[in-house]
């Protein structure tokens, strides 16, 4: 990473070399000076200050400490410690099991394939990165009708389709922007709903 901004004369020379003029070089300098201060730590205010960059609240929570020059390269590379918004041991969201208390309910006769096998029960969770994971085996419901509905904050922006395993044959599950999870193609003896996507709404 560069240690300092180019001087005004250097920016004007760059602009001219690229076919621009002195005015454009001065404009580059003005805009560069505006964005020297970047704020990545802290909670974004209700009315963000001009010319400051804030970490989005859905990107895994706010930074406890700001990223400084010594850690900026690591941050850009995506290597963050826990105080900078990285994932620390024990910081992952718990799995939300379908049909459990205060969790989305099964619909259209869908159920867990084997409720006693907790590790394979239909569940979902979201990582601090915003990626949603759905896992588990479901059974006995009506094909092409929704098995359950993902809550707000765990939904894709558009409809997405995944190829899955359905009774050891090809299956297709679709996730819609309203949160509906539809086993669309396959056999309902057992239907695997493992997939992942970025939550955008």
């Amino acid at each position: 990473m560069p240690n300092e901004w180019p001087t005004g004369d250097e920016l004007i020379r760059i602009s001219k070399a690229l076919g621009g003029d002195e005015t454009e070089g001065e404009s580059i300098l003005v805009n560069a000076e505006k964005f020297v201060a970047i704020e990545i730590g802290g909670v974004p205010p209700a009315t963000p200050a001009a010319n400051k960059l804030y970490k989005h609240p859905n990107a895994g929570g706010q930074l406890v400490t700001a990223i400084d020059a010594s850690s900026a390269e690591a941050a850009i590379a995506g290597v963050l410690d826990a105080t900078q918004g990285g994932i620390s041991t024990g910081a992952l969201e718990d799995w939300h099991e379908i049909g459990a208390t205060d969790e989305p309910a099964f619909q259209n006769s869908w159920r867990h394939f084997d409720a006693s096998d907790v590790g394979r029960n239909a569940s979902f969770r979201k990582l601090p990165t915003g990626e949603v994971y759905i896992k588990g085996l479901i059974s006995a419901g009506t094909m092409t009708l929704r098995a359950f509905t993902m809550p707000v904050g765990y939904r894709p922006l558009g409809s997405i389709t995944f190829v899955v395993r359905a009774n050891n044959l090809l299956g297709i599950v679709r996730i819609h922007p309203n949160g509906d999870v539809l086993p669309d193609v396959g056999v309902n003896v057992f239907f695997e709903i493992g997939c992942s996507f970025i939550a955008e709404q």
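Helices lie at 8-17, 22-34, 69-76. The chain has a mean pLDDT of 74.
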